[in-house]
Amino acid sequence: MAAPAFDMRKALCYGIHAEVEAKNFYSMWADNVEEDYLKKELQELSDWESEHEESLQEYYEKLYGERCPIDPDMVVSPELHVQTKDFGDVTSLLRIASAAYLSEMRAMEFYERLEKESTGETAAMFGRIKEMEKEHMDITKKRYMEMRSDVVGFHAF
User: Fold this and answer.
1) Exposure check for the chain: N or C terminus, fewer CB within 10 A?
2) Is residue 22 a contact partner of residue 103, using CB atoms and an 8 Å limit?
C-alpha cells in the first residue's frame, strides 16, 4: 500500500494549530508558577511558539492567499491540555514537564519532515524552526530533570 501523498496545506494547518497549543500551554504554565526565573523561561517559550505560529501563518498566506483559520476545537497534543490545579501538584508537574518534552520532540520531528518535503527558502525556514524546537526540547528536558531531582533527592541520570 502506497503512503499517502504529502499535503503542504494540511501540514501547515496542523503546525499552526500545534504552535497555538504550545503557546497557550507555556503561557498558562507561566501564569501558575511563583519563581520569577521559571515564569520568565516559560513566557519566553510561549513567545517563541507565537513567533513560529506567525511564520507559518505568513507562509500559509503566501501560498494560499489567506490565513489559516484557527479551529478552537482542534486538538494536536492532548497531553498539553491540563487543568490549572495540576500546576500545584508535584506529580502532575512532572507529568506536565514530561508531556512538554515529548511535545517538543514531536514538533522537531514534524519540522524535520517538512524540511525534507521542501526546497530552497521554504526548507531553510522549516530547518530554522526545527532547530528552535530542538532547543525547546533541551530546555523542557532540563526542566523535567531538575523537577525530578527535587522529588527523588538526587540527579539519577
Assistant:
1) N
2) yes
Over residues 79-116, the pLDDT tens digits come to 777 766 666 666 677 787 888 888 889 999 999 999 99
Residue with cell 503512503: 3
What's the whole-number mean pLDDT along residues 17-28? 91
Report the C-alpha gap between 47 and 1 in whole angstroms.
41
Length of the chain equals 157
Per residue in 30-66, pLDDT (tens digit) is: 888 888 888 888 898 899 899 999 999 999 999 999 9
Cα gap 122→30, rounded to integer Å? 32
Whether domain 8-67+80-151 has CATH 3.30.565.10: the reply is no
Nearest to 70 by CA among 24, 31, 29: 24
3-state SS string over the chain?
CCCCCCCHHHHHHHHHHHHHHHHHHHHHHHHCCCCHHHHHHHHHHHHHHHHHHHHHHHHHHHHHCCCCCCCCCCCCCHHHCCCHHHHHCHHHHHHHHHHHHHHHHHHHHHHHHHHHHCCHHHHHHHHHHHHHHHHHHHHHHHHHHHHHHHHHCCCCC
Q: Is the pLDDT of residue 156 over 60?
A: no
